[in-house]
Amino acid sequence: MKPAVILYKSLPDDLRAKLDDHFSVTEVKDVSPETVKQHAEQFASAQGLLGSGGKVDDELLAAMPALRACSTVSVGYDNFDVDALNQRHVLLMHTPTVLTETVADTMMALVLSTARRVPELDKWVKAGQWQKSVGPAEFGIDVHHKTLGILGMGRIGLALAQRAHFGFGMNILYNARRQHEEAESRFGARACDLETLLKESDFVCISLPLTEQTHHMIGAAQLKLMKPSAILINAGRGPVVDEQALTAALKDGTLHAAGLDVFEVEPVPADAEILTLPNVVALPHIGSATHETRYGMARDAVDNLIAALNGKVDKNCVNPQIQA
Ligand code: GLV
Ligand code: GLV
């Protein structure tokens, strides 16, 4: 008999067929308590769980006593209680490599569109306001040869540094737990403490996971350290930034602009004050959302679950130590 698996994300047909070849799949819309209640038997017998979003916590795990592996279609896994998974010897797989270049592209898009006010001026032209040549009211600020500070020099931070350095001649600063020799030798990146990075950067780009340590790492005090001409880009996780403090800083001129792909609450409520600010470029968490990359993530997630349930884990495993 094929192992039972719960799927809570729709997959392209060929990947769904592959999953069906290996497992007996129950597809549900999410992993909310209501859904679990509706499909209690399937959750109770499932050895695998594949999807993205939703909380995978002790309560869900208690309803899934046969579970051996989770496979998330994402690089971030802040929605998983990893301690609870470890206690129950459940493997957690993610997709850390396939989306790197695409998320770095998104970050660069936010850098350019905030600095050059692309969405704002697009609306302006389409509203028929282009009556004569533009003046200072429509000017932006330069990106090339400015200083870009990266919080979190992981794979995505490195791919961003590459774009900024070679494409735009930018000077790169970074703040990370470990020294990154490749970033330093290839892109001339300079490691510095958070305070120095915030003070010296023209663009501060956040590419950090959400953890207890990074929650509200950027609040009112940190925003005050930034230059009034500086721009904050967040494409990591929303709660790394105190959104209320950011809204205040963008309103009172502490900060020039912000480009946000992530928010404290997602979807960001339509009446959130931050969405009313002209100096905010907002995206709906599309860092990895291209046809090619979302396919690649789904493919990797399917392969990850097959590998994990066959006892073969690799670099895509968050907690390989529990297997030993
Ligand atoms: C997207 O935010 C991801 O974690 O993959
Ligand atoms: C999960 O972490 C996601 O937001 O994609």
UniProtKB/TrEMBL annotation:
Q: Which organism is it from?
A: Pantoea wallisii
Q: Which family does it belong to?
A: Belongs to the D-isomer specific 2-hydroxyacid dehydrogenase family. GhrB subfamily.
What InterPro entries does UniProt report for this protein, alphabetically? Answer: D-isomer_2-hydroxyacid_DH, D-isomer_2_OHA_DH_cat_dom, D-isomer_DH_CS, D-isomer_DH_NAD-bd, NAD(P)-bd_dom_sf
Source domain of life is Bacteria
Task: Name the Gene Ontology molecular function terms of this record.
Answer: glyoxylate reductase (NADPH) activity; hydroxypyruvate reductase [NAD(P)H] activity; NAD binding
Q: Name one GO cellular component term.
A: cytosol
Q: What is its EC number?
A: 1.1.1.79, 1.1.1.81
Q: Name one Pfam family in it.
A: 2-Hacid_dh
* Signal peptide extent: none
The chain positions of domain D-isomer specific 2-hydroxyacid dehydrogenase NAD-binding read 108-287
What this protein catalyses is: (R)-glycerate + NAD(+) = 3-hydroxypyruvate + NADH + H(+); (R)-glycerate + NADP(+) = 3-hydroxypyruvate + NADPH + H(+); glycolate + NADP(+) = glyoxylate + NADPH + H(+)
Keywords noted in UniProt: NAD, NADP, Oxidoreductase, Pyruvate
Q: Is the keyword Hydrolase assigned to this protein?
A: no
Name this protein carries in UniProt: Glyoxylate/hydroxypyruvate reductase B
Domain D-isomer specific 2-hydroxyacid dehydrogenase catalytic, by residue range, is: 5-319
Which EC class, in a word? oxidoreductase
Which CDD domains does this UniProt record tie to the protein?
Answer: GDH (cd05301)
